[in-house]
Design a protein that fits this description.
Number of helices: 13
Structural class: alpha/beta
Largest sheet: 9 strands, mixed
Shape: globular
Helix content: 25-40%
CATH architecture of one domain: 3-Layer(aba) Sandwich
Bound molecules: coenzyme A
Strand content: 15-25%
CATH class of one domain: Alpha Beta
CATH superfamily of one domain: Thiolase/Chalcone synthase
Number of strands: 11
């Protein structure tokens, strides 16, 4: 396999956007192309991740994006894997460059849903669950993650304040990210006092519905070296699956797809969780981040809540988690999220993350899952000096 590098990255603001879905995708793509110092004619293939293009009247998005970039002859592929679409798509782009099919590809994730309103977005998102057992019986994602939170809190004697620490830390990080959706400092009491969405989860335990796009340029090492631009190397890639419905799992205090994907990625990179300097993880709800950091091997099972309270995951902590603000504060445009995480890692490891830079970071991890973790991907990246 060829070594694969990330040579450039771009993102729109995340939030409620007025532009149409193609314009949003193109804005991020053009920024990534410029950041890589390439021209569209260097792109051998386009990979697009998106879930609800239909909500903005555009499916079969890849040819539209390629045509607007002036490279209509270039093949494109749209990939859907619910909230994990971006990382699953990144894996396909990675695999195709590693296999030598292309020297350089564009990977762009995009979503636009906020114009449909909370009720309609909640209905649409429920189609990403195992609809026969879950969405079809009225279970929304806040409801499903509330069940997971109750189980975890009972098993490990965690409480609602433990969840709130995740939200406060991620909002604090998001304040330093000019592109974040929810840029607002919050306190533990703000979280505890915010309206209940699905007990024990409250408004400030939930990620918002967001619009936005992120794009990165992947290429082989020779292409990256010739560019004379900063780049990072992909050193590990893993994917895993879990029973689609929450009720189909033996123990819902863990997400099997994360554990499987992480093991593969660490093995491929030849490293352990101790070698990772920071991570962007899937914190769609505060409980998810607590479970993620245990499943990724950063903390033993049942111990993360205490570590998070003591600051282990803050920007200056032992293992900073979600310096971008995460899904909670940066936002969660579901098709874009996994690529947005890679864009954050690229910015961090190439000195472009400004005030939120994690000092001396050399190795970073991204983790992104679909639905309640039915699908997941984990990637590892190394700074190139
Ligand atoms: C949490 C949720 C129910 C809130 O929806 P809502 O009640 O319609 O919220 P609104 O959009 O009317 O916003 C109300 C206020 O709360 C704020 N807000 C909304 N969602 C927020 C969030 N997740 N975090 C922080 N603040 C939020 C808004 O900015 C707004 O503030 P303002 O009154 O000062 O302008 C909704 O965002 C949600 O369901 N999120 C989860 C999405 C999801 O399931 N994603 C998939 C994950 S697997």
């Amino acid at each position: 396999m060829n070594k694969v590098c990330v040579l450039g990255a771009g993102s729109t603001n995340y939030g409620k956007l007025k532009e149409d879905i193609i314009e949003i995708a193109l804005t991020a793509s053009v920024e990534a192309i410029k950041s890589a110092g390439i021209s569209p004619k260097d792109i051998g293939a386009g990979y697009i991740s998106n879930v609800f293009g239909i909500a903005d009247k555009q499916v079969h998005m890849a040819p539209v994006i390629m045509s607007n970039l002036g490279i209509s002859h270039v093949p494109g592929l749209t990939i859907e894997s619910a909230c994990g679409s971006g990382s699953v798509m990144f894996r396909e782009a990675y695999a195709n460059v590693a296999a030598g099919f292309y020297d350089c590809v564009l990977a762009v994730g995009v979503e636009k849903v906020t114009h449909t309103g909370t009720a309609q977005s909640t209905t649409l998102f429920s189609y990403c669950s195992d609809f026969f057992y879950e969405g079809g019986n009225g279970a929304s994602f806040p409801g499903l993650f509330a069940s997971i939170a109750r189980y975890y809190m009972t098993k490990y004697k965690a409480d609602e304040e433990d969840l709130a620490y995740v939200a406060v830390k991620n909002h604090d990080n998001g304040l330093l990210n000019p592109k974040a959706h929810m840029r607002k400092r919050i306190t533990i009491q703000d979280v505890i006092n915010s309206p209940v969405v699905a007990s024990p989860l409250k408004l400030l335990d939930c990620c918002p519905f967001s619009d936005g796009a992120s794009a990165v340029i992947l290429c082989n090492e020779e292409f990256a070296k010739k560019s004379n631009r900063p780049y990072i190397e992909v050193i590990g890639s893993g994917r895993g699956g879990s029973p689609a419905s929450v009720q189909g799992r033996e123990d819902i205090s863990t997400i099997p797809s994360t554990v499987i994907a992480a093991k593969q990625a660490y093995k491929m990179a030849g490293i352990t969780p101790e070698d990772v300097d920071f991570a962007e993880v899937h914190d769609c709800f505060t409980i998810a981040e607590i479970i993620d950091v245990e499943d990724l091997g950063f903390f033993p099972k049942g111990k993360a809540a205490k570590e998070i309270r003591e600051g282990a995951t803050s920007r200056k902590g032992r293992i900073p988690i979600n310096p971008s603000g995460g899904l909670k504060s940066k936002g969660h445009p579901i098709g874009a999220t996994g690529i947005g995480q890679v864009a954050e890692v690229y910015d961090q490891l190439t000195g472009k993350a400004g005030e939120r830079t994690i000092n001396d970071a050399k190795i970073a991890l991204t983790h992104n899952f679909g639905a309640t973790g039915a699908s997941a991907a984990v990637h590892l990246f190394k700074k190139v000096e």
